[in-house]
Write a structure and sequence with these properties.
six-stranded mixed β-sheet, nine-stranded antiparallel β-sheet, single chain, 3 domains, binds calcium ion, Immunoglobulin-like
Amino acid sequence: MSGFVLRTVFEKTKVIGVVLILIMLCTGVASAERVGQQKEAIAQDFVIQLNPLSTVYMTDADSLAQSLVGSGVTISDAQFTGAGNCAGTFAGGDGIIGITQGVIISSGDIANVIGPNTLDDITADFNQPGDPELDALIPGFPTHDACILEFDFVPAAGIIQFNYVFTSDEYNEYVDSEYNDVFGFFVDGQNIALIPGTTIPVAINNVNNGNPFGVGTPSHPEFYVNNDLDDGGPFLDTEMDGLTTVFAATAQMTPNVKHHMKLAIADAGDELYDSNVFIEGSSLVSGSSLVPTSATNTVGQTHTLTATFIFDTGEPLSGQEVTFTITAGPNAGLTGTAVTNEFGVATWSYSSSSPGTDTIIATWDEPVDQPDQVAQTHLETNNAFKTWVAGSNIPEFPSVVLPATFIIGLLGAVFLIKRTKEQ
Ligand SMILES: [Ca+2]
Ligand SMILES: [Ca+2]
Ligand SMILES: [Ca+2]
Ligand SMILES: [Ca+2]
């Protein structure tokens, strides 16, 4: 690395530092007044990922609902309520929010989730009404700008589940305030978007690390991921200042009967500062499932699949050996086994040395020598798909920096020896 390159890096660092300070000053003033800002197209050198988040607006209720549905669930009579920019699909969530692709609904503009994080107060104000069912989840905090997808569905088994992440720019400065943005997944009128092991709805004031961050009164911080500019961030390539870990929503159902699902999110207190919920594509399943349903990685990396085995009664298959099989693709014929835990969950990992798309399924057959006294003797999941792509030629960090550091060190040593000899 030459002196010129080093100087350029230092100059760039200085410029970034000045930009950072200006942004911090501007956002500090804005948040004090609670006005909210629209994102501007300014190039920033924050955390940026090669394969970033992307969004596509979509308000067609049937298309949105179909994007959510996986195996064992059929839907009908889908309806959408909200502003044109509050719903759609997303992709590129790997390594950022923890869900690769799916459906997103927002109390603002879904495109505002795209990184880098440059504002403390990203806002789209649609001047839309709130929702009475969301109001009821957080008594005392009237809601605004509600975005709602609802549909009827028939589950094949006695349980449904799906995966989601809640994110917001209300974090961290409006934790424990009246701006307590909220969302709900109402199944037959009952909210199933709850903090694991509780009956508490997921909302800003219920999942956080306190205000001030790390000092105030944290609420379920074990499920909170900080990305706030004022609290050490950004760490992730999304505009959102804070997010939850990946949650699974589950509900016991009467199988083969029509039920109603309503997915809703809204601002609380005012229409400002966006909140969003990301729901994994094809993850609304009934019975046994295999996730992620689709994913793309570079050849040589490791891919982990999670299978959940549920009987039609809603009971999990626990402590049983299940089989993962690649039925088509470059790794067709490869199999593996794992034992389910008390929740019926088993994981399996593999890697590929060739590009292409694998089709994977997980199955369980009741062992002949140890009958389980259940009516069903065979369970199988949906198919999952894994695409392997050829590796890029971009050298990784150490392979560039370490030789460069070594050469600089060597040149320095030669220079010192020369100077010492000359004296
Ligand atoms: Ca809004
Ligand atoms: Ca932000
Ligand atoms: Ca914020
Ligand atoms: Ca808000």
